[in-house]
Amino acid sequence: MIGKIISHYKILEKLGEGGMGIVYKAQDTKLDRLVALKFLPTNLTASPEEISRFEQEAKAISALNHPNIETIYDVDDVGGQKYLVLEYIPGGTLKSRLKQLKSEDKTFSLSEILDYGMQMAEGLAHAHKHRIIHRDVKTENIMMTEEGKVKLTDFGLAKLRGTVQKTKTGSTLGTAAYMSPEQVRGEEVDHRSDIFSLGVVLYELVTSHLPFKGDYEAALSYSILNESPPSVKSMRPDVPQALEKIINRCLEKDRTKRYQHADEIVADLRAIQQKISPASDKDRKKSKLPLFVGGAVGTLALIALIYILLLPKPATRSEKSIAVLPFQNLSAEGPYAYFAGGVHDELLTQLSKVGALTVISRTSVMSYEGTRTPLRQIAAEPGVRSLVEGSVQVMGNRLRVNVQLIDAATGAHKWAERYDRTLDDAFAIQSDVAQQIVAVVGAALSNTEQQGLATAPTENAEAYRLYLQGREYYNRLGYLQQNYEVAQKLYERALALDPGFALAHAALSKVHGRMYWFHHDPSPTRAALQREEAEIALRLAPDLPQAHDAMGMAHLLGHRDYRRALGEYAIALEKLPNDAEIWAHIGYAHRRLGNWNKAIAAFEKATQLDPRAADLFWDLGGGTYWVMHRYAEAVRACDRAFSLAPDYYAATIQKGWTYVCWQGQLDTLRAALSRLPRDADLGDIETRTLPHVDLLYWERQADSLLQVLLMTRVTVFEGQSFFLPSSLYAAWAHQLRGDCLAARAAFSSALVLLDSALRELPDDFRVHAARGLALAGLGQRDEALREARWLQQSEVYREDAYGGPELAETRAQILAQSGEASAAMDEIERLLAGPSWLSVHTLRLDPDWDPIREHPRFKALLAKYAER
After folding, report:
1. How far, in Å, CA of 745 to CA of 754, rounded?
2. pLDDT in tens, 128-140
3. Best label site of 202, 658, 681, 723, fewest CB within 10 Å?
4. DSSP per residue, 682-720
């Protein structure tokens, strides 16, 4: 198989083989990414049972979407042989890692065990909520990513609720040593069988041994059914008693005595983690407090007062202000779990069309999903006068929706209705609910608004349902590629049913745009598809506001034509005046044009409509204030983002960098990194390791930097604005150590990688910027200066007031390291004088400026701008 091309996948190497399949590493030539292809083994005759089980694996994984579960991209067949296209996870299995540690006479640390245990339990909890049982949880089916995450794989033995049993009566599935007693007995199993297997895995992580043993299968089965495993603490005394209790409870032979839900395991493991966390963090905070407040209560009060006064104020709401809370999903079957979210999302869109209403946006209300927050408190936080809450239930082809409108001040019901119709009536229900709400709150409707609420976007009910499901995936947090890929497929299926569905064309255009902008697929083809779908939407429905928003995104993201984007957004606002996303898009466009006051005004309007949107405060607020050198406001915006979303670690990292630029102190960044969980997601503009690497570099800790680069095994640090080979950092570390030969070898390695990337991405400014730095490091002056000229002529440098300064800073570093001190300092002075990411403190700290550090003009610039 090696070297063969299956569909658009080129087979690169064999990764492994087991009873349920053979797995190959492959290159997806369409999307230019690595994937894993899993085929039925060629050496066995595929029975109907095996094919059925293989297809069941595809259904099981495709129903799941969780960071601790392997993603499935597609299922197909070649020559009658079925295969899955899966996420490629390069870190190896938990089993292989255990073997490696045993060979080195080492064990997993307690913190690693707790971390991995919580991740595995969270993945299982997600699967169980979707009525899916794995039935083969073992260390061999748990993959480790290079970033320290674990992912459950191989759902080939999963049993979907409602499917027939795939084995003969009395036969067993699973790997013997990890099987639950009920599996050993060949009984029907439920999710508690996975909990037993998880207990076996936890026992193995702690002790490096399996809890049940036998020289042959019958002896092993007897042990599982009748014997208690050796005490964990007898094999590893440092283990907390609480962890041993968790493992023992998982391994209860009577499943009624085990944990009944994986969520309970997560909670108990987290409690142990919190107890063993060093108390020194709190002590350090206490010891540093006097440095900030001088021990004076009056100073503290003044700081608090200033903070409160300068925070964005919640707007005073009119009588016609509404928050639509997330609809409760009462559907019994997993495939319809999306429906409540889709109905809720479209109702918000319908209400946002009414200019006389103020409607709190989706992001702000989603934070209340699943909570028991009192209605008055919910109303007070965004400052609204009315609340809408409801539930959605799908039973067969029936759709039942309950909706009620509540007076936020008194809790009294203003209006309530129950709809019991078919799935085909989904839009009609939403339209009626929207019109009833508008009438009850007394908002006046124009003829155009009335028509907008009543006109169905498609006559094909199935196409509309697919569109709703695509919206649910598109709106998921994290800007994750897999969510966009699923949304794309759903929109495309909707359009296959109704090619004239303009709203779906607009939505598909936006998916293409995000795939392109976040570099999931930075190909020109993707940008062209974005523009093409937006044009189709406008041709089909010239007055559709979502089509104009999509075209605005095509101008903004696909072509960096910010002025034309603003024109499209203005048209979209005429019919969607309360859409926070469009206001945010306006802010992004003004920021790129350097219209800073307009960007801030759009940010304030967006946060009035979406007051709990952490990403708005972090990015549009914090990022804009930071580049404008309004550091105190940037810090407050980051604090606001983190207060709204305590797991929004990107905000704490950005706050740390803001303090570096503002005061030249690294403590805030260092503290943020020390508290960063191993599996923290910093989004697409950052990676988890890069801030740590940069900090070590700026602290000139060359040996530690080299060690971290070796441990992380990251080839390229890649984000929205950077493409930096780890070998480039290794070269700089060797320079700090004075090892010229090692530095040159590392620079050469970086250049090879960048030249290869440039062949694939010839117009990517990130690659050109990094290549210039590598060439400068190698002393190839003329070629480095050519890259500096390329950057200067690029569209981002010339026309992007937000991203351009970052590119200009890199250009100045290339010039400084290529002996062009005067040209470098011209660039530095321009950046210090205007909006940029550069400050006198970053100039002092960053070793990249060492070649010109002693230049009189450089020192003069530091002195001049330090006073400002």
Report:
1. 14
2. 887 788 888 999 8
3. 681
4. --TT--SSHHHHHHHHHTT-HHHHHHHHHHH--SEEE-S
Does 485 share its domain with 507?
Answer: yes
Model-wide pTM > 0.70 = no
Round to whole Å and give the CA distance between 822 and 812.
10
The answer to whether 358 and 322 have CB atoms below 8 angstroms apart is: yes
* Count of Cβ atoms closer than 10 Å to residue 30 Cβ: 12
Amino acid at 553: M
Instruction: Give pLDDT, residue 570.
Output: 94
Residue 839 token pair: 């400050």
Mean pLDDT of 221-245: 90
Residue 676 CA: distances (Å) to CA of 443, 648, 794: 47, 10, 36
Q: What is the domain range of residue 63?
A: 5-87
Containing 376, the helix (H) or strand (E) segment is helix 375-380
Q: Do residues 568 and 551 lie in contact, with contact meaning Cβ atoms separated by under 8 Å?
A: yes
Taken in order 27, 29, 35, 38, the sign of the CA dihedral is: negative
Task: Flag whether 18 is in a domain.
Answer: yes
Contact 352, 360 (CB under 8 A): no
For residues 538 and 111, what is the distance between their CA atoms, to the nearest angstrom?
Answer: 54
Three-state secondary structure readout of 760-805: HCCCCHHHHHHHHHHHHHCCCHHHHHHHHHHHHHCHHHHHCCCCHH
- Specify whether the CB–CB gap between 726 and 714 falls below 8 A: yes
Indicate left, alpha or beta for 370 from its phi (over 0: left) and psi (-120 to 50: alpha).
Answer: left
Q: Are residues 452 and 463 in the same domain?
A: no
233 and 105 co-located in one domain: yes
